[in-house]
Amino acid sequence: MVKGYRGLLLAGVVLCAAQSVVWGDCLTDTPLLTSAASQVLDRNSTAPVTITISARDLPAGCTATPEQISFATPFGLPSAGVAGLTFEPPLSFKGPLAGVKVTLTPSMIPSGTYNVVYTVKDAVNNTTSVTLPLVVASAPLYAATPSLDPVSDVVVFLGQRLSFAVGLSDPDGDLNITDQNTLAIDGLPVSSTKTYAKLTASRFEVLVTLAPSPFATLERGTYRVNITGRKIHGGYVTAQMRIIVQ
């Protein structure tokens, strides 16, 4: 196990996108990440490992053109051990959903931390980027990648009360039940509340309640919400969603 790889993981994560606030139209909206996570690989393993990063760009009411998105070639991958790179859809086609799959052979990668940049853009060059650490170590502990439950956009009207759940799971049982930032939800409307419904070492669940006042006209708009889950020993996963207050 590489000493200090927890700090290397957290220090290397950078998410480049607006934190909250309101888009005027589709031309200024940027793609949302639906699944992106750091990885810890065992250099003693010869079994291929596939990393998948996915995104979407489907704001309500947009025309087809801005919704066409695609990933660029990831930057910062190891110079050895990359067994495959697949784009979905292929680079010659674009659609409202996109992904990139990187297949790696851990035993062929020198030990260390690689900060890999993934960038997705739409047809009018609005971009979202995320920098995710790839740690390669001999017999690392707590190597499993945490996962977030799938999230989708939510629409709520002034005067309405609406709740939805956000969940984080970790096969290693390495979640910190004393730290609410283990599952962070940022960029919510000001009238939102969060209730921690389940806190265990392997599962976090948060209930988010939206209750904008009938008179809170200034709260109307589209909010970009960043959701992040963190393990004690550094594993990290992120996703994004929109909340539309009408």
General description of the model:
The protein is mainly beta and 246 residues long. It has a single domain (5-245), classed as Immunoglobulins (Immunoglobulin-like). Helices cover 3% and strands 46% of the residues. The longest helix is centred in the first third of the chain and has 8 residues, at 5-12. It is flat and about 60 Å long. Mean pLDDT is 84; it is low at 1-24.
How is the secondary structure organized here?
Elements lengths: L4 H8 L1 E3 L15 E6 L1 E4 L6 E8 L12 E3 L10 E7 L8 E8 L7 E11 L4 E11 L9 E2 L5 E3 L5 E8 L13 E4 L6 E7 L3 E8 L10 E10 L5 E10 L1
CATH architecture classification: Sandwich
Series of H and E elements: HEEEEEEEEEEEEEEEEE
* Portion in strands: over 45%
What value does the Rg take, in angstroms?
19 Å
Our measurement of the CA-to-CA distance between the termini, rounded to an integer number of angstroms, reads: 50 Å
- The CATH topology corresponds to Immunoglobulin-like
Q: What's the level 1 CATH class?
A: Mainly Beta
Shape: flat
The CATH superfamily title = Immunoglobulins
